[in-house]
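Morning!

This is the sequence you dropped in the shared folder:
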Amino acid sequence: MRWSRYFWHTSKEDPADAEAPSHRLLIKGGFIKQVSSGIYEFTPPGVRVLRKVENIVRKEMDRSGAQEVLLTVLNPAELWKETGRWDLYGRELFTLKDRNGRDYCLGPTHEEEITDLVRSFVNSYRQLPIILYQIQVKFRDEKRSRFGLIRGREFIMKDAYSFDTDEMSAMFSYENMKFAYDRIFKKLRLKTLMVEASVGAIGGISSHEFVVLTDYGEARVAYCETCGYAANAEIVKLPKPQEEVEEEKPLQKVHTPNTDTIEKLSSYLNVPPQKIIKALLYIVEGNRPFLFLIRGDRNIDENKVEALLGTDNFRLAQEEEIWQLLRTKKGFVGPFNLPSHFKVYWDNSTYGIKNTVIALNEPDYHYVGANPGRDFSYGEFVDVCQVEDKDPCPKCGSPLKVSKGLELGHIFLLGTRYSQPMRAYYRDPQGEEKPIIMGCYGIGISRCISALVEQCHDDKGIKWPTPVAPFELDLICINTSDQEQKDVAEKLYTLALEYGIEAIYDDREESPGFKFADADLCGFPYRIVIGKKVKEGKVEIQNRHTGERWDADIEKAIQEVKVLIEEDKK
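The structure's back. Tokens below.
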């Protein structure tokens, strides 16, 4: 491909709203363009990367025995109502009506439709097991789309579904997909961590995520370097601590003006945050008040709250609501004299605390020296605490490490979550009808592109791994008006194509610095620079990943690069 004729437009300016390196470099490098919030289109070089990712995924899925299908984007509401997810899925579901008033959604995932497809044709144990997959565009009305392709409202996903006769067979399918995912991410040159995860809105028995650790991931991952335990932080269970042992002090009511945060209260009273109990008032489903109490040095994990409540329709109460319900102010909410319709939960972190500071639902006042049993009574204990570094590993007790992670793949053992309500049954050897045991397995194809850039970049631009690079080789002619340089460049470009190398020839009439900057930005693994050394029979080869540069004979340069590319692809 000649760059002068290629639809590829880079930018020298950083996009104003891009925070993540992948978002910034993919836009600046001309791989994607934003159409609207959370919606991006791919340019020709972006499509080249996308197709390479897809092909690696497709090859490994085919190798695993899965068969490719292509389902619809437009899903009829009737299928989703069979499983109850039309109402349960939440506000991320894009819904619409056709001209006849029939309800549809834009598929965010395809459990219902694939189950409908299988139940239409499978009725005997002899037809099982099977795994079907597709690579398809998905739609989710994210409440906060951000970081470019990392969290979009329209994205490309590979989703697969397994169908088995029993749980043992389903586990074999599940493990088969685990191995396939491991191979996929290794071939993409992505360093991933497999972690235990929540089943979320998909439902089912168990699930695992494949994540890459990055500051711009939206998941929090906890892992133990001692025993190898790893899980999405939202499912890590934190136990009750040991009861504190210290002499109980007398209860005092203390005037605490202008202390509406833990930091201010701690400073004012000269008390460490861990000796304070804070209360957070949530309004659930529009009008139901729920009070959560947690230790002052800890934070609530709202994913745990969502799992506990069974809904994501909740929010922190506003100032006027706190006053209306409790006649107090933010920062002075406590568990005392609550209306009977309040639901109260105590996080495990509050267990056994002695001589604590706690609010009493009176503006500008706190109790100091409060003790459970004597001064207040616990209610129902729950685990809604956000996991932090050095919390105990649930398996071995060693200190955990917590990092941000970007989810690339998610696999679920669904059981009969969809086959039972949709009556996807098979007949066993005795002729008895039984529900099919299912699993589902997703990979964010477009998200993988962001993950690759997050892991493979420097301050100059992207450093694409060779298997997914838009072009494997960039040929730069330093002076296109120099006939000898131009002739050598043309010769090497033709030879590169003959050798099967994916090459782009930068024949633009731009300065060498301009071309080098674009080459670094766009991340080609190898570069051949055709300049003044052609008079000596030499060109320069550059390796984008290592930064190495060396001279090569013109006649041998392409062969050298070919060998390097083949090594990279092994």
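Headline: The chain has a mean pLDDT of 95.

More detail when I'm at my desk.
O.
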